[in-house]
Amino acid sequence: MKVSNIFVVLLVIQVLLIAGLYNVLTALDGDEYDRERIAYQNGLTGYLVDVVVVGDTSDFVDSLIDTFVARGMDVDRYDLDNVVEGFQPSGERPVVIIFYGDWLASNMQDPGLRGFITSLPLHKVSLVAVDGNTSSLFDLLYEVGIYTDIVAEDGVKRNPAHFNPVVAGYRHITGVMPNGSIYYYPSILVSNPSSVDGVVNVIVEWAYER
After folding, report:
1. What separation in angstroms does the CA of 178 have from each of 66, 123, 172, 181, 182?
2. Coil vs helix vs strand at 125
């Protein structure tokens, strides 16, 4: 067989393979495929989180929400009256609960908010404060007994987000002892991205870290 003929045969095979792949992709659930495609176009293939926003927001947080949605992620919004204790993630993707920092600082003493925070399965849910007084997240976690490392051995209070970065986050990572028992240890996010896109990237990547 001539080289030119071999080239033509290989080209035909390639076209058929591409057509077959296209048919497989379009046969998938349309909504889920679109979500994956949008995430891929933004450089985060497979990195989708479910976002829950609690309380009032700022213009910056609103822009953050718009960016999450534009990247194909689900965003639910709740007022303080709508949050309930015992919240459980319903899907397989990580869940990120976002608070506007200044709103969180103003509502730290609210018993409903405190009950909501203390009931969360923090090995499945990530807490994030964005914009404004983001250090209030760790103040609240300390006051409700979740993050006690804020006070060092010398008795001095050291908030890891004391300088109010753009993003502050807290969650638990699951560990396994040699005897098979499970334990949890904290994962802390403190970051100052320069853009809304950067904030989204930092939050999503951190939520997936194990």
Report:
1. 44, 20, 19, 7, 10
2. strand
pTM for the model stands at 0.76
pLDDT tens track of the chain, all 210 residues? 544 443 333 343 343 333 333 332 222 233 333 444 444 444 554 578 999 999 999 999 999 999 999 999 999 999 988 877 667 777 778 999 999 999 999 999 999 999 999 999 898 899 999 999 999 999 999 999 998 877 666 767 789 999 999 999 999 998 999 998 998 999 999 999 999 999 999 999 999 886
As beta bridge partners, residue 151 has 157
CA end-to-end distance (rounded Å), the chain: 54
Q: Domains of the chain: which residue ranges?
A: 1-41, 47-208
- CB-CB contact of 168 with 189 (8 Å): yes
